[in-house]
Design brief:
The termini are far apart. By secondary structure, this protein is an alpha/beta fold. Strands 3-2-1-4-5-6-9 form a 7-stranded parallel sheet, sandwiched between helices. The chain is 43% helix and 18% strand. It is built from 6 helices and 9 strands; from the N terminus they run E-H-E-H-E-H-E-H-E-H-E-E-E-H-E. The chain has one domain: Rossmann fold, CATH 3.40.50.720.
């Protein structure tokens, strides 16, 4: 009997990443969970039937290489790689700390690119699936939002990766959520936001399509979100 496929997730300790890990485990995937928050990450791995936790700062190439090596040493393959690590910041180019800006751009853009590079050969080997967490903010500009600019970069990166993987059998999907009830938002919303499980279900829809079907983008908003 073939071994169960392997699902690697960055930014896995909370929110969309953790919800996706639980959905993927329920679908029979073995999990490789990566984040900087080791305690939360290990607690999540402990609750799942077959999962390992790997501390990883996605902005560090050595961490990304180590993550992939650990995944391959443990399970021998990577079938799905979900570049999900990222965070936001206050709007307004006169607001916020510039070091926060730097960290956000490095995590959201450079970190995602490093995940693609680190997992590329393994995904080609399995004819696997790459997913990137984009955003509604990567489809429409938000006033004064550097975060929005990073997600526009992810929209472009996803299409660039799709073309780069062409003829390898690897599929590429950009998941573009609107407002989600996760630690990303510190205050209650004025509308009923999506839940992390809603996004995880969209991820699982994309990865469970037949091999001939490449769902390139899923743009998903709360029903009550206007923009």
């Amino acid at each position: 009997m073939a071994e169960n496929p392997v699902f690697l997730i960055t930014g896995a300790s909370t929110g969309i990443g953790a919800a996706t890990a639980r959905k993927a485990a329920g679908a029979g995937y073995r999990l490789v969970l990566a984040a900087r928050s080791e305690d939360k990450l290990q607690a999540l791995a402990d609750e799942l039937p077959e999962a390992i936790a790997v501390r990883c700062d996605v902005t560090e190439w050595s961490d990304q290489e180590s993550l992939v090596h650990t995944a391959l040493d443990t399970y021998g393959r990577i079938d799905v790689a979900f570049a999900n690590a990222g965070f936001g910041g206050p709007r307004g180019f006169g607001n916020g700390d510039v070091e926060h800006w730097r960290s956000m751009v490095l995590t959201n853009v450079y970190g995602a690119a490093l995940t693609i590079r680190a997992t590329r050969d393994a995904l080609i080997e399995t004819k696997g699936h790459l997913l990137l967490t984009g955003s509604v903010a990567g489809r429409r500009a938000l006033p004064g939002s550097l975060y929005s600019a990073t997600k526009w970069a992810i929209t472009g990166m996803g299409e660039g990766a799709r073309q780069d993987f062409h003829d390898t059998g690897v599929r590429v999907t950009v998941i573009e959520p609107g407002q989600v009830e996760t630690p990303f938002f510190e205050s209650p919303g004025e509308i009923e936001r999506l839940e992390a499980d809603d996004i995880a279900e969209a991820v699982m829809f994309a990865v469970t399509r037949p091999a001939r079907v490449d769902v390139n983008e899923i743009l998903i908003r709360p029903t009550a979100q206007a923009g």
